[in-house]
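Dissemination and training. As part of the outreach component of the grant, students in the summer workshop were shown how a complex can be specified as a set of sequence lines and then modelled as a single object. The example used during the hands-on session is reproduced here so that future cohorts can follow it. Participants entered these lines:
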Amino acid sequence: MTTILNRRGAISLAGGAFGGFVLSTPAGAKDRHLSGPSEKELAHDPDQPVLGNPKGNVTLVEFFDYQCPYCRASYEETRNFVLSDGNIRWVMKDWPIFGPVSDRATILALGSVPLGRYAEVNRALMGLKGKQLTVKQVDAAATAAGAPPAKAVPNFEKDYDKWTALVGRNMGQAAELQLVGTPTYIVGHHIFPGATDLSALKQAIAQVRKG
Amino acid sequence: MKARLTAIILAWLVAVFAALPGAAQQFSLPGAGASRPLAAAEAFALQAVPEGQGTRLVWTIAPGYYLYRDSLSATAADGSALKVETPPGTPKNDPNFGNVEIYHDSITATLPVASGDIRVTYQGCAERGICYPPVTTTLHLAANTAVAGSAGPQAPASDAAASFAAAAAAAGAIPPATAPKMELSHQAGLNGLEGRGVPLILLAYLGFGVLLAFTPCVFPMLPILLGMLARQGETLTRGRGAALSGAYVLALAAAFGLMGAVAGWSGQNLQMALQSPWAIGALSALFVLLALSGFGLFDLSLPEAITARAARLHGERGSLLGAAAMGFGSALIVGPCVSAPLAGALLYIAQSGNVALGAAALFALGLGQGIPLFVAGMFGAAVLPRAGAWMNWVRPVFAFVFLAMAVWLLSRVVPGPVTLALWAALLLGLGGALLGAPGTALRRALATIALVAGTMQAVGAASGASDPLRPLARFAATPGTVTAEATAVPAFAPVATESGLGHALAATPSRPALIYVTADWCLTCREIDSTVLHDPRVQTALAGFNRIAVDVTAPSEKTKELMQRLGAAGPPTMIFLDPDGKEPAGSRKVGPLSVQALLSSARTVEAPRS
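and obtained this result:
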């Protein structure tokens, strides 16, 4: 009996040795370390459409919701930075937290991938104003960007398994990384919760490039 | 095909190495503590105070944080919406926000009820620029008692996070969800045997074993045993048959007993090892070897040293020992095969930590499996013809059976079309062999059947079909039905760690949850995915569920911990939690399950409907 307890104890201790930093550190303490999804899972999910330069040498990951006001407020600035740099893979991971209209926006955006209009639809949706959007608004934005719901929704449904699994992985990663909400940016191993100064992201990107 | 198997093995290796502390992917939050957003529990603290016929809900909102007025809602225990009286908020009119009303500092709303279990949902953001997913908390209201919002029972933990959680809970906040809020009931497949007498447990396992004996898994042992008896030739009597089968069955049971002892001692999940692609691959290879030997390509015999030693013993004892050795080895064959039912047994033993009882229970299980074999051995001995020409054709027949077992096992780790191709090769080979042999009308009929079936499997393989029982499914399906089917599969959010599970559960706490332990190599899981989860009734029933997948395809230290926390021995395991995080007794499903079984478990965690 003692042996068993000891063995079990040893197992949970071994686990705590590298996962424990997270669990035992209340918010507000010094640097927080999290084990989580691998670099590849996080930044190079094969089903994830990539903005910016898909062959870029560094990845900017952003967890976002199409109705999250802070995500939209920083969108154009982030986009200009990504495009002017020219060597950044911008991975916007759908994490719909604002209800059915956010779900609809995600469906339209992912359904526009086979139409080759993902970047346009993504930008049009992020350009909408107001915290609470309506289905009408997001449908109109997608249509204007070249992906009418009559085409985008069947596209999404055709690959339903793929897209829902992709969003499911995003939500799983958000949970694993204990992300608080949207937006959250990740560069290399650094997590930036909430609206983040571009200078901080630039610095982290430069650091990753230095290796 | 091959690439996939390699990928699985690679993924497994990667996971094993990733589990080593130094290799783990680490993330950090740069910057000082003050710049980090608070946990939702600290940002929005909820307290309920009874007031006359109703209840006051008071939120204390941290400076720099705000709640959306339109996000506040409440439902009664029966799921019906309750009217929440809210005061006007501060209008926030910003190009990006539009026209919304928000609350800072604190806000008091009123509910028209004073007692019962009420679920309150709210959502907010921080001015610093981050929005939280909706938070739902359950209030257990009793008239005239003030209560703090509670997110259900806390998992015991000894680290600082727990005391932090306790402090937050005492302050009326919702505890942070680092530990999954679950109240588990570990009664899977064991039918409440805990607390019963030892004889009853042993008897139950014996009966369980007899049932297992009639699954395809035990079938390959029959040719092994009968082959052994047939080799006795002239000396075979009923007594001799009974002695040999007895030795075989006892050894088989002893091997199971050993497995039980190891499970009881280590508390670890043997099933995972038994179902690894390595074990499956090795076992298939063994079957192929046995088959080739059956075809007479070579003689499979034990090394000289061992046979010589056996021969030095008296002839009878020697063959008894041989029978025992084969019985012991057979357990290794049957083990991975009956893993799903075995999981429940190993789970119970691992949890009880009782080595002696574990060993005894699995010994009884092995004995139960052996009883029909023993009977077959005893009476088979009497009816088997005495030596002769039949020995020459029975060997190839067994060889085909062994090859079929190899394909069947491999189908768990190779993609569907490869399985179909293997079946095609086997059936066409069988048909050819039957045609080639001089024979009767019956033999020709069998040959024709085998050739037709083989051709269908080959066509199916070429078309990319993956179900050997429906090789031509690809041709029957219209694009329309494919879409309808695809649309319907419920998505599961995958998690791999305990805290990941905690957050996934906390994301939608007002809903019942289904935690599905699954793996790529788990054949039963794939059956469940392609049949049970596709059933429209199941989709309807699970529509309101928070669906979370624990994928143990690549076992690591993290997944092991999580499995231990869940009390799950292996895939497939389905754990149903009600909106309060409680697992109803007897609702857990381990192993293969039917649509009805899933529906009945799902019903136990749904909010009662009025």
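Chain A touches chain B through 82 residues (CB under 8 Å). Students were then asked to discuss how this feature might be tested experimentally.
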